[in-house]
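Give me the fold.
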Amino acid sequence: MTEFHILADDSVWRAGWEQRVEARHLEVGLSEESWDSRLPRLRAYRDRGEEHAVAAVQDGGTRVGYVAVALDNAQTRIDDIWIEPDHREHGHGRAARDWAEAWGRERGAHRVFLQALEPTPVFDDYPLRAQTMVKVLGAAPDLPAGVLGRPMSAAEYPTWLENDIIGYMADIVDSGSMEPEAARRKADEDFANLLPQGLDSPDNTLWTVEAGGEGVAFLWLKHHTSPGQSFVYSVSTSPAHRGKGYGRAAMILGERATLDAGDQALLLNVFGHNRVAINLYDSLGYAVLDQSRSTDGTSSTS
């Protein structure tokens, strides 16, 4: 029978958790330097929230793992469920999930969310909301014949900006994270913060993919987000030109721009419902760094 004992001192769990996250970070090819940059953010994430608990998962008095939870903005956040390899496939992981959900319900939280390092059957029925993907770059592939990349023009920027804000808002709503009004507010704020000087915002690349003399796709990257890393904030294809490989061409341009900026890895976040984009990134050799999953609940979202 699985039992749970809340720990007064969670330092042993925390050290092991940080080591597992670091191992995943390095496994996908990211550097020790970028991990040193990420670790303070990971610790701040764990400490965020109104209440925290770590419980030892026990079987017959023997510790077989841990479950770590937090109450965050009136929602249950599961930061870790880890079962010792020799004790897996005995139902302890599912029991830990049930315990975490009950812990949150006792505190009035009806929505549960988590970031998982890798897919796990324990959370298969939690909808995938988003995932972070990464590619460590070698030489960038060649662009398709007849396709070129150029900096986005001042004339193109306003239309691109409004279309991308609308698209981002729709993705937030479709992911189940927010209602339309809150999603639009978040989209406006995020773009304003990330592009404070528009096309001239430092360390940003905004490119147009051109074919037949026409702009057919657009790419937005931010460089040096962590040591050696660039981040894809947006890749979009004009509706009339979808399904023609221009999104792939935009991502190839992104690899070139990343290398030209002196970074070695390209990261992105893709919403879980966007299977077309996920399939594209899979085909280009991106690996999953982590996944965000959550239940549908009635509590407010941020």
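Confidence is low (pLDDT under 50) at residues 298-302.
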